[in-house]
Write a structure and sequence with these properties.
Largest sheet of chain A: none
Strand content of chain A: under 5%
CATH architecture of the largest domain in chain B: 3-Layer(aba) Sandwich
Distance between the termini of chain A: 48 Å
Number of helices of chain A: 8
Structural class of chain A: mainly alpha
Order of helices and strands of chain B: EEEHEEHEHHHEHEHEEHH
CATH class of the largest domain in chain B: Alpha Beta
CATH superfamily of the largest domain in chain B: P-loop containing nucleotide triphosphate hydrolases
Number of domains of chain A: 1
Radius of gyration of chain B: 18 Å
CATH superfamily of chain A: MetI-like
Number of strands of chain A: 0
Shape of chain B: globular
Oligomer: heterodimer
Strand content of chain B: 15-25%
Order of helices and strands of chain A: HHHHHHHH
């Protein structure tokens, strides 16, 4: 009869801290980069230029409709075929960023659309350039508005980073497979990693809330949580 | 006062503004000299607000020319930012930055756009809060202020840039009646200080007390341009007579 025994994994916990750090690092980079992609993508989507609007919409529609796993394969194997060697970690990072960036674009677009025209006019009438206007007036307000929906997506990125295991990136899910293979304690490994992802996602989410409260500590605007 | 020989701050000639086939401003000529308070009245939809928005390039124009301090106002040119920094604009709906405190609203552009030291700007800003009689509200956020208070912060925000021209676009139209007076008092102070002001409003009392010129616009044209007292007591044009009659009745 099968006996659930977490202690059976103990000999394999050595590489675990490294795996956790790798998952955290991959997720954190993907979050930051996809926020940048999302800001640019959203600016394209609301741009006055038809070409930029089309490019933004095409990016979102294509990337949202390809499974992340397929994007990872396309970048890792596809780019290698045309002679561009990208290692596993960076392939996963690019794929995650492109995928999450499409969702970020839509979230930021929603935030941009919520900023009244009068804000742009007030900023312009004070002589702000486009860059100053977005930096000091528009995006600080957008971040406040999208703060809550951003949380869902950020957790989604941490969870999705587990797909990096399919191209051999040393991270938490890869550790789970290996520990299972070597001990035959698959259930224990699945269980342990499930718990680890909950903790990681929560840690990152708490990080989001703390940074947010610190950054947005002042104004009673929008959907602050 | 209106016969001041100084060269005009603002020189508008043959201005035409169209939205598609719809003509909003139909050949407006207007010179404003330093220290002049020009009050623009007229029925809604006659291009009064649009005229102000053209002056600081928030709208592009289809004909004629606008010169501000002898520089052409071109909404798509790089020179527009420098021109806007010298023109303060006060909007009907205040348009304060909701994520910043009242004080930060006033300080943002002088610090970030003009690059002035924050300390100096803060000192100036505190002075401006006294001028608009809001020194006790400097740390409040816009959402915590009444409409009249928000509009006075907006005036302080415009003044903080040391503008050479102040434009008011129906500054009291969105206010509760009891706060209108506070805003008009501040505007009257500015007028008596010798500020150059272009004011779109329906406040005939303000025009009468501090205006040097009153302009009546109708159908995108300037119909009448005279000292306020003369226009109010003895309007020449039939449309002016009808309009003033209808708003003075109430």
């Amino acid at each position: 009869m099968y006996e659930f025994n977490l202690a059976g994994l103990l000999p394999y916990t050595g590489p675990l801290p490294g795996a956790v750090l790798s998952t955290l690092w991959l997720s954190a980079l993907a979050i930051l980069l996809s926020i940048l992609v999302g800001m640019l993508g959203a600016l394209c989507r609301v741009s006055a230029s038809l070409i930029l609007r089309f490019a933004g919409a095409a990016y979102v529609e294509v990337l949202r409709n390809i499974p992340l796993l397929v994007v990872i394969y396309l970048i890792f194997f596809g780019l290698a075929q045309v002679g561009l060697r990208v290692d596993g970690f960076n392939s996963a990072l690019i794929a995650l960023t492109l995928n999450a960036g499409a969702y970020m674009t839509e979230i930021f677009r929603g935030g941009l659309l919520a900023i009244p025209r009068g804000q742009y006019e007030a900023a312009r009438s004070q002589g702000m350039t486009g860059l100053q206007l977005y930096r000091y007036v528009v995006f600080p307000q957008v971040f406040r508005i999208i703060y809550a929906p951003l949380g869902n997506l950020i957790i989604g990125i941490v969870i999705s980073s587990s797909l990096a295991s399919v191209i051999g990136v040393e991270e938490v899910t890869t550790w789970m497979r290996r520990a299972g293979d070597e001990t035959f304690r698959y259930m224990e490994a699945f269980f342990a990693v499930g718990v680890i992802y909950v903790l990681l996602a929560q840690a990152i989410n708490i990080g989001r809330i703390v940074t947010g409260n610190w950054l947005l500590s002042k104004a009673p605007v929008g959907a602050r949580r | 006062m209106s016969t001041d020989p100084a060269p005009p701050v603002l020189k508008i000639a043959g201005l035409v503004k169209r939205y598609g086939p719809h003509i909003v401003i139909d050949g407006v000529d207007l010179d404003v000299v330093p220290g002049q308070v020009v009050v623009i009245v007229g029925p809604s939809g006659t291009g009064k607000s649009t005229l102000l928005r053209c002056v600081n390039g928030l709208e592009d124009i289809q004909g004629g020319s606008i010169l501000f301090e002898e520089q052409p106002v071109l909404s798509r040119s790089r020179t527009i930012h420098a021109i806007r920094r010298r023109i303060g604009m006060i909007f009907q709906s205040f348009n304060l930055y909701p994520h910043l405190s009242a004080l930060e609203n006033v300080m943002l552009a002088p610090v970030k756009v003009l690059g002035e030291p924050a300390k100096e700007v803060e000192e100036r800003a505190r002075g401006l809060f006294r001028k608009v009689r809001l020194e006790h509200r400097a740390h409040a956020f816009p959402s915590q202020l009444s409409g009249g208070e928000q509009q006075r912060v907006a005036i302080a925000r415009a003044l903080a840039m040391n503008p050479h021209l102040l434009m008011f676009d129906e500054p009291t139209s969105a206010l509760d009646p009891e706060t209108v007076g506070d805003v008009l008092t501040v505007m009257e102070d500015l007028a008596t200080e010798g500020r150059t002001m272009l004011v779109v409003t329906h406040e005939i009392g303000f025009a009468r007390h501090v205006g040097h010129r009153m302009i009546f616009m109708d159908g995108g044209k300037i119909v009448e341009d005279r000292p306020p007292a003369d226009m109010i007591t003895d309007p020449q044009n039939a449309r002016t007579k009808q309009f003033l009659g209808s708003i003075l009745q109430h």
